Each structure stands twice: as C-alpha cells, then as structure tokens.
Amino acid sequence: MRRESPNSTVIRHKSYEELEVRELKDYSTEFDPNLRFEDFSKDILVGLLELYSKLLITLDGLWYLSVKERAGNEEAMTCDKWVWERALRYMTQDIAKLIKVPGKDVVDFMKVLQARPMHFVIEEKMEVINRNDVVLTVTHCPTLEALEREGEGREETHCELACSIMRRKHTELFNPDMEVRCLKLPPRESREEICCQWEYKLG
Fold first, then answer.
1. Which residues of 6-22 are buried (b: 16+ CB within 10 A; e: fewer)?
2. How far is CA 46 from CA 8, 124, 189, in A?
3. pLDDT digits (tens, 9 = 90+) for 85-97
4. Is 182 helix (H, G, I), strand (E, B) or coil?
5. Based on the domain organization, do 172 and 191 belong to the same domain?
6. Do 147 and 70 share a structural domain?
7. What's the pTM?
8. How far is CA 41 from CA 6, 12, 14, 65, 69, in A?
9. Which of 5, 95, 120, 196 is positioned for an S-S bond with 29, CB 3.0–4.6 A?
10. How confident is the model at residue 5, as a pLDDT?
11. Same domain, 34 and 98
12. Phi, psi at residue 200, to the nearest 5°?
C-alpha cells in the first residue's frame, strides 16, 4: 500500500477491493519508484502541460537556429517545413481522437487547435461567426517576439513562409474542403498590435 503524506489527498472508492487515488500537491515527499502522472493533483498536471508546451516551442526554435547557423536560413526553413508537415499529421489525428471530436466543421477544428501544445504558449482569440466561419486572432506569439528581438527582419518572411504554409497544411489534414485565409501578418509597428489573424471557412 502507498504511504500517505501531508501533501497528498487520498480519495477512497468503495468496491470489492479498496482502491486508492492520490493527488500530490507537490513532490517534496519521499521518492516513489512507482510514481504515475495520475498521482499528481490537477494543478500540478496543468503546470506540467504548460511547461512541456513551452519546452516544445523552445526546442523547435533551437534546432531551427542550429540548422540556420550551419547551413543558412533557406535550408533551415526547408527542414522546418519537412518536420512540421509530418508532425502535424500525428498532432491533428491523435488530438481529435483523444478529445473525441467526431465532426469536421470549422468549430470542430477550433477544438483541436485549442488542445494542441502551442495553444498553451500562444495566446489566441476565436470569434465564431457560425460553425463554418471562424476568425482566429493571435495576440501573443513567442516566436514572433524572438524574431523581433533578433533584429534581422526575419519576421517579414518567416511568418509567411512557415506559419501560413503550416496553417494551410494543418487545415487540409483536418478537412480538405476547409479553407484558411490570412487577414494579417507581421511585420507590425508595435507590440500593441496583434501578431496575426486568420479566417477559417467551410463551404
């Protein structure tokens, strides 16, 4: 039987054999070689999810810069598109299956976008016109801010070459009949402006 601690909540479910579910509020307790994700509290799990999402974005940026320094920006962009075109196939299908999104309209696609790792790092607003027409506005994007700090002007081409292509690819993978139209792209005059804006339509 697992040892209880002051930092954990034990929820008991009565059945033919007693089951024990822990909700660790932190891991300052003794080391548990049999630790599972479900042993943590909701707050810890959400925090881990947000951290993993940030790490994914950081890793994406670091390997891109690594290729850029060794082979140039054009080759880095080619590799970036190759990677994300393949990653999006798994991301789209697996997320939709996990969160049980059976439909294929625009609102269903927004549900999938809300559950992807980047949504926990990038701040987005979704304005639903109807189930087949949604305007998505990105108000905070770490990648864009990093490009602006870099000062090489890459945001003028990176977002068009990378984000535009990937958003269209992502949309096509979810529903080939769905279209995404870019309403606004960088560069921007100040950080008070939105990062970018897109309209998703079907039919």
1. eebeeeeeeeeeeeeeb
2. 17, 18, 34
3. 899 988 899 999 9
4. strand
5. yes
6. yes
7. 0.83
8. 13, 15, 21, 36, 42
9. 5
10. 53
11. no
12. -105, 125
Q: How far apart, in whole angstroms, are the C-alpha atoms of residue 18 and residue 12? A: 7
Is the pLDDT at 121 greater than 60? The verdict is yes
Q: Which residues contact 5 (CB under 8 A, 6 or more apart)?
A: 24, 29, 30
Strands (E), the chain: 8-13, 19-24, 123-130, 133-140, 178-184, 196-202
1 lies in some domain: no
pLDDT of residue 111: 97
Q: Cα 81 to the chain's mean position, in Å?
A: 17
Q: Can you give the residue range of the structural domain that contains 21?
A: 8-39
Assess if residue 61 is contained within a domain: yes
Residues 29 and 112 placed together within one structural domain of the fold: no
pLDDT of residue 79: 94
Q: Are residues 72 and 26 in the same domain?
A: no
> In the numeric block, which tokens belong to residue 127?
């304005």
Strand partners, 40: 24
Look up the CATH number of the domain holding residue 191. 3.30.1380
Nearest to 77 by CA among 86, 88, 68: 68
Contacting residues for 66 by C-beta, under 8 A, at least 6 apart: none
Per residue in 168-195, pLDDT tens? 999 999 999 999 999 999 999 999 999 9
Residue 2 lies in a domain: no
Same domain, 16 and 114: no
